[in-house]
Structure formats: structure tokens, C-alpha cells
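Notes on consecutive records. When two proteins share a document, each keeps its own sequence and its own C-alpha cell line. Never mix them. Below: protein one.
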Amino acid sequence: MSYPSDPEDFLDTAPADLSKLRVALSPDLGFAPTSQMIRRVFAARVAKLQPYLAVAEEDQPDLTTAARVNWVIRCLQYLGSQKTHYAEHKEKLSPNVRLNYEQALELSVEDVAEAFRENGALHREVDRFFGDYDVLIVPGATVTPFPKEDHYPKAVDGVELETYVAWAGLTNALSTTGNPVVALP
């Protein structure tokens, strides 16, 4: 995708044979805070799909460390990208940008090394997982829409979240693995 391509090349694709697909289903990847409403809708939707698949079972790779890995890498990215802004006018930065930047300053070399070591382990875990499955289906979001003025939900079903990105645990975990992800409404 990093080179020019003709969009017409993508229009003539062979139909997929769903009856051969091995599909893992997970409402939360085993750790992501996911609202009960999203869980109910997800279960209803995948129930309609399951009869057409070779394998459709609840399973997920072990991504329990992905939130921490994602947070450390995110903080490092903010440290690199916001240095000048932070030095010249940190009061104008959003609280979330300041939080990421300041937490990056508190990371030790060991914290960073551990995050990168664990990131490699996450990649290996996903490779192992996809030896058994062709597709992993998860909800596209963990919460129902919320007012844009809130910026992010502070809790899911009454359980307070640790960080402002915790509500996007599914997205962050899968992005951290570096694998292709498609979100469908």
C-alpha cells in the first residue's frame, strides 16, 4: 500500500468462502473493559454469523500486557513529538498530552526496555494464535457513544478506568500487535 496502485485492482475480488474460515470471537480480549450493552449486541451479531463458519468459538490471544506496552510507547511518542510545545507553552496543551509527556519523563530505562521486550512477546503470541485461526472478531468499540464534551468515558458500567485511553482497550491492544485490523459498524 505504500506505492501507487489502481483502485480498480480491488474491485474484482473472489468471493470469500466463509465455510472454511476458522474464527475466534472475543467480546473483550480477556481484559478490555467492555460494557454489558456492547457484549449483548456482539453476542447477538456473532450468533447470526456462526452457522456459516467452519469454526467459530470464543478465544483470544493473551494480550493482557498490551495496555501497559501501548501506554509506555504512547508516552514515548508524546515525549518526542511534544518537547518544543511542552517547553514553550505547556499550559496550552490538553491535560491528556501533558499527562503522557510527564509520565514519559518518569519512565526508567528498565520500564522502556520491558515494554519493548513485552511488545515482541505480544507479536509472537499473535503469530502463534493465528496458527489456529484465520480471523479474530471483536467489537469495534467497548462503549456506546458518549458526549464529545466528555472527551472519553471515565468509567464502563460503573467501573472507573485507570487512564483516558483504557476505554479503547480493544483498539489499543490490537494496534500494539502491529497486525491489520478492520472495524466495521
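Protein two starts on the next line and is unrelated to protein one.
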Amino acid sequence: MMNDSKAVVLNFISCNKGCLLTFLRLFDQGVFMQKEFDEIIEFLDESKIKYRVIDHAPVYTSEQAAATRGFELRQGVKSLIFKITGKQTDFVLVLVPGDKKADLGKLRKILGADDIRLADPTEVKERMSCEIGSCHPFGNICGLKTYMDKRILDNETIAFNAGLHTKTIAMSPHDLKKLTKPEVEDFVK
């Protein structure tokens, strides 16, 4: 005779396939996003960088994040993945102050791209193992060339999501620059 827990699971599967698939998808995302966060923390610790982790309710916009974190909007760092086409197709990570928007014309010129667009949710997950809105600024961890807008360096402290919608890392922007070795440019409006 089958044990009770197996029977419950099989019954759930047969009656609620859609619910189970949704649960498994969310569980999978949580596990992989937590792994990404753990890798970032390990990287920071090994680099002997001073940082602070802030646990909070889920945030999905820069405005929500600033209010929840207790930081000014300009101190937030948005990590945006762009798909560029030109001589070759590639993805790049672009770091933008929370109170600004990326200027696609400036970026196209800096990157020498014929076309540029934001990566879609599937492309983001494939490149960073996290969801849009929770991307971290460590392109070097996931093999993405990184570009940082110069205004980020005007802050004493910056804050950014770290692969999860519920975790923020606060640290010096100069330490972030040292760790990620981005190209620092002027590309916001």
C-alpha cells in the first residue's frame, strides 16, 4: 500500500496539474535566485568588501525599492540587460541610477550597435538566473560586459537588488566599480 504522503501528492497532481506546475515554477525560480544571491555574498566576502544586506518585502520598481530601503531614489542602481545587434549580437549589462533612464541613442553610439533593446524576461533569466527587477550589477559573475553610468559614483552609498526581490545590498559605488570593472560612461537622460 502506498504511504499517505505519496497518495496526497499523486492526488494533488491529478486534480491540480496547473497549480502544481505553477508551484514548481515558483520553487525553481526561488531556488535559483537564492543561489545567485549566495554567490554574490560569497564573492563580496572573498573580495573583503564592506557591504550590508537589507531584507525587506518584495519590491519591483525603483520607487518601491527606495521607499522600502530608506535610500534616496538616486542611490538605487538599476541593472538592465540589453540585447545589442551590429557586427554581432550580444547582451550587455547597463547600470543606471534609480532616478534616471538609459538613453538608447547614447548607448547605441557607445556600444557601436545598429540596434538595441531591453532583454525579454526569458533572456534575462537565461543570462542572470533571476527575474526582471531583481537583477544584480555583477555582470562579471555571469559573463556580461558591464557599463556603469558615471552618476552612480556621485553617491557615498548605493543600493541594489541582489538576485531576489526581497534582498538589497548596500555598499560603496567605488567598491562596486573595483569589483565589476565596468566601462564608466555618460548614457542617461
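For the record: The domain at 38-185 is CATH 3.90.960.10 (YbaK protein).
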